Structures are given as structure tokens and as C-alpha cells.
Amino acid sequence: MGVQKLPVEIIILVLENFSSTHHSSVERAELASCSLVCYTWKAIAQPLLYRLVNIQTHKRIDLFHDFIVANKRLAATIRGFSLVASIWGNTCPLSPSLFVDILEALPSVRHVELVGITMLGWPDHNRPLPRPSSLKLKKLVVRDVRNGPYPNKNHSRVDLLRLFAEVGELVLTGNVDDEGAGTPAIETAATGEYGGPLPVVRTLGISGPDYFLDYNGTCGGVDGERLRAIDVDVDSEVTARHAGKMFRKYGPNLRELSLNLCKAVLYERPEDTSMWDALDVGALAQVERVTLHIRDHTTVRAKNRPVDELNIEFCKAYDSVLSAFPTCTLRELRWVAVEPMDEAVTLRLVSTHLTPLIARAIEQFSALEQVVLVVRRELPLQKGAATLRKVLPEGVASKVNINFEDGDGPED
Q1: Residue 149 preceded by cis peptide, ω within 30
Q2: What is residue 229's predicted lDDT score, i.e. its pLDDT?
Q3: Pairing with 205, which of 13, 126, 143, 355 sits 20 to 30 Å away (CA)?
């Protein structure tokens, strides 16, 4: 039987096997070849080939816009779109108005990523500031983006978040404003001439002061009543203070918090609790689920530090943070330790360093129902649970459900 006569269901299974989440260059080449076999294969392979589109900034972005406008069927297959800084430089900066036009031409896009690019100001001379948007995304990542330069007084800063009606998960890190900004026309945009409802963000990921988030704050912020979770990566006291600012602003309605102090402990080595006090977690009056990253992949770099010494420092930092949490709403406490460790080291982390914190949390939080430890597969989960219950004070372990889960860290 020729390949052209294979059942369509078989062809779909074969071609989808080529396609992974990240679309490597090899996979894309295979799919491109498959799309040339016959019309049947083309109809199946092309949507997989265009499912994730990655463009670098040495290429003209406007030509991609023209392509998707002219090929609506292919545009409808695009689920993820990323614009990444090229090693040859940002020769084609992104205009926010063009960015909007591209997203409006991608009816099925759900994931968008902007990394290391330059975003220009909003061209006031030919388009008014963006009005209430209908664009919705499942995830938006904006990292290391420079906003500006502004070619002339007719270009304004733009509230990036106002370009969207709703974002399920928003990750902002390392974004800055161009130093040359500051003309009168630019400043008028900061007074909030947008109108309409505030943008909806369900989960916000931050790792310190960020231009887009701070400028959004001057334009009204996001809808605080619908923001439910914040993911914070703390690496310095500046980051901690910025996180505290966000907690005070949005804390009363937050239900989930994910907190990673590993970098701050590793690089700053704080001698007192002032950095953790700056987080002001007491403002999280309704938080129900807290995830604490006790060890992550950054700690692999600390090869000159004894493992047990690091574990003690991590637990000391989290002990200080937990003691400041409101005591009546927390229902689930999760500890994540996905850095590669052998079974003996992981058992020591659980039995020696985490046990006092878990016992104290069970006594401190009256509504606590579940404690979860997420570890790599080097530690058999049943053995970890048995060890933890054995070392917990008598009667404490029976007050809540204590579970272990497999971590999703990469294999060695």
C-alpha cells in the first residue's frame, strides 16, 4: 500500500508523533517534508508545522503580518507565537499597533512570548490609544523587553496589558523603559486615557520591578478582584520590596501564592529577617494555597556550599515568611524540591530540615487540610511519606493529609 492510501487516522498519528511542544528544527524539517508528499499529507502537516511560530527580530515582522492576513486558513492553525531577539540585533523593532494587528489576525493563538526585543511607542499621529480590547490569551510572557525609543513627540508610552481583555497567566520580568523617554506627549498617556474595564489577569508571575507592570499601575492596574494567584521569584531585597508592594495592592483577593527565595538566600545571604519582612505576606488575607520552592535548579551552581548548610538557610528563610502569614485561611501548603539530589540527601531534607516547619505550620494554620512535598523520583514516594510521618511529633501528622508528588525537573 502506498503512503497516499494510508487511512487518514494513521497519517495523523504519524505526523503528530513528529510534533512536540517545542518544535525543534529537526521536527519542523520533517513536517515540511511530509507536507510535500501529497495533498492529504499537506492538509495534515501544515497545521502542525504552523502550530508554533517563532520569529527573530532581524526579520521584517510586517511581512509575517501580511502573510497571515493573506493565508487565513494557516493563520487559524497558529496556537503559539513568539518574537525573540536575534543574535544579529533588533533591526526590526516591534510597533505595538502592529503587534495588535498580528494578534487580531490569529484567531486561535493562545500563547505569546516576547523576549529581548525592542518595542516602539504608540504612533499617536495615525492611531488613537488602544480602546477596550477583545483579545484573550492563555499565557503571555514578556521578558527583557526594552520599551522605546520614541522617535518623536507623536509617539507615546502604551500600557501593554491594556492591549488584552484577559490573560490567564502573565509573566513579566526584566522589562525596562528607554532612557530617552519623557516628552510631554508621552507623559499625557500616563494619565489614563484608555477608558473601559481594567484588563483581567488570573495569574501573575514577577521577579522584581518591571516597566510594563509599573506603568500599568499608573494607568489603573489590572482587575484586582479577578487576580487570583501570584508567582514570585525573589533574588534581592529590591525584588522583595516590589513583591510586597504587589501584595499590598492585590493581596486582599489573592487565593494562591508561589514563592521562590532560593536565589536570594544563595546570592544575598541575608543575616536577619529584614528582606523577608519586606515581602509583607501579612497582606495576603485570603490566601488558601501556598507553594514554597525549597530547592530549585539554581542551587546546582552552589557547588562550594554544603548541601545541608543550604537546606538550613532555605528553611530558616521560609520559617520567617510562614510566621508572618495570616493564620485562618491557608488550606494547602506545598513544598517543591526538584533540584537533583540523591535519596539520602532528600531524606535528610525531609526528615531533618522540613519536619519542624511542617509541624509548626500544622499547629499555626487552623484551616490547613493538606501538606504536599513535590520531589524528584530519586526518592521513592512511599518511603518519603513513611519517613516524614515517623519523625513528626506524635499526633501532628494525623491532623492533615501529607502527600508526596513526583517533581517534573529534567533528568540528569
Answers
A1: yes
A2: 96
A3: 355
